[in-house]
Structures
1.
Amino acid sequence: MQKFSGSCPVCGCLEFSERAVLWPELISAWQLSEVEVSYINRQQGFHCKQCFNNLRAMGLAAAIVRNYQFNETLVRFCELHHELKVLEINAAGNLTSFLSKLPLHRLVEYPQFDMLNLNVESNSFDLVVHSDTLEHVPYPERALSECHRVLRSRGRCIFTVPIVIERMTRSRVGLAPSYHGQAGVPAKDQLVHTEFGADTWQTVLNAGFSSCEIFSFEYPAALVMIAIK
């Protein structure tokens, strides 16, 4: 397993902190091993002291700039790419404050904005971004097909989902309700419908994308899906 080292790809800071974020009920519901608890805690609890983005969001930022052959921070990327039309579905960690500086950026919130039937014109965006949202959507393949529809030719959907790498994807239909967010707070929009695994790429291709790359910012804690129309 690799460990990220270097500066924050969002803001360039070199200082980080880390804390555990999983709680016993969620660990039990997901039947997580000690190794899985360790890398998921790191994914969600390791964060930059300056911009406060966690490892998951940092991986998403690194994937975005890499896919546009840009070698500086996301902050700098957003200062220079004013032509890029971006749809962000739910705030992607603390990346929104930077992505929103793009003049053609649009943020919509799920579930208030239906991800299964996006009220967005087809072929209208260069980039769709979402982070740890798809697992809360009842039909993730349908949601990704909507992301595909609104993208222009060769557009990208760059996103994260929590991936348990030693398993296959499974639906939680018929299982006890499991919620993300905060311990003891069963918020309806935090209900988990899908536990993603090593075959997550199949959901992407079944949604109509021509390719799917798994970008590893830190394996296995920070994996990012890059889908190209």
2.
Amino acid sequence: MVNILLVEDDKNIANTISYYLQQEGFLIGTARTVKEGIEEIKENLYDVMLLDINLPDGTGYELYEKMKKIQEIPTIFLTALDEEKDIVKGFDLGAEDYITKPFHAGELLSRIKNVLRHSKIKEKEEAIKINNVEMNYTIRKSIKR
């Protein structure tokens, strides 16, 4: 199963996205703040992160930079900020995609699948799996799945 971390402070948006993605077979972890997002990243392994930029205790950009020091999670910024400077900043930080609100659920699903396709290729090059233990060379951790 694919694990997705959704960091979104708007409860209605988070519930709607979570419900839709769960119906598509994804496991969803949620966080509403930078602090909660960091806790989730430290405690769980995620395949993709959907990240809002405007959060109550900081920005999604800050969370993204902190996340990269803990583990690399392919990230899609999912935000109302639609100015070119914001989009460019997201990509310059290293995000895989950037979607502005409002968006269509089908488009979000397609973009998640695209990120997963690209990250699986990268994952094969950076990790070795033996039985239920994976050694990830990028994050330098053994992960028991």
